[in-house]
Amino acid sequence: MKQTSKTITNMQKDIRQFAGDKDVMTNIKVTKSAVKSSLNNNMLPAGTPISQTGTVDEATPIGLLFNDLDFEGIGDDETVTASVMIHGFVNKARVTEYIGKEVPEGVITALKGKIQFL
After folding, report:
1. What confidence score (pLDDT) does residue 8 get?
2. Residue 60 lies in a domain
3. Degrees to nearest 5, angle at CA 58 with 57 and 63
4. pTM for this model (two decimals)
5. Which range marks the domain in which residue 78 is found?
């Protein structure tokens, strides 16, 4: 078993439009090597579109990464469990800010009926 200690200094990001219990999450296993090109300072930002197989996917995502996923100290072949929103209401402006670009139309289309971008 691997045990680490880390001091967190930044505030947790929230992609939800409304706080409450109407959001549905699922856990997806993500391998660092599968998302390495999308990492920013070893962090995969909240709002990143994620596929069923745990890759960044703007064409056919299953949902959006709910929280920042920290890969610091994680080897390329190691797996981390990510919380992925698969149903709910999302603040589009916050997601745009967190991922550093406009939410791609392919993501909005693929998640239509599951996630509403407000």
Report:
1. 52
2. yes
3. 70
4. 0.87
5. 24-117
14 in any annotated domain? no
Does residue 54 sit within a domain?
yes
**50: three-class secondary structure by DSSP:** strand
Structure tokens at 52: 């069923």
**Per-residue pLDDT tens for 86-114?**
999 999 999 999 999 999 999 999 999 99
* Chain length of the chain: 118
80: in domain: yes
pLDDT digits (tens, 9 = 90+) for 1-29: 666 655 555 566 788 877 776 889 999 99
Answer yes or no: are the C-beta atoms of 10 and 111 closer than 8 Å: no
Q: 87, exposed or middle or buried, with CB in 10 Å at 0-12, 13-18, 19+?
A: middle
Q: How many domains does the chain have?
A: 1
Residue with tokens 């997601």: 95
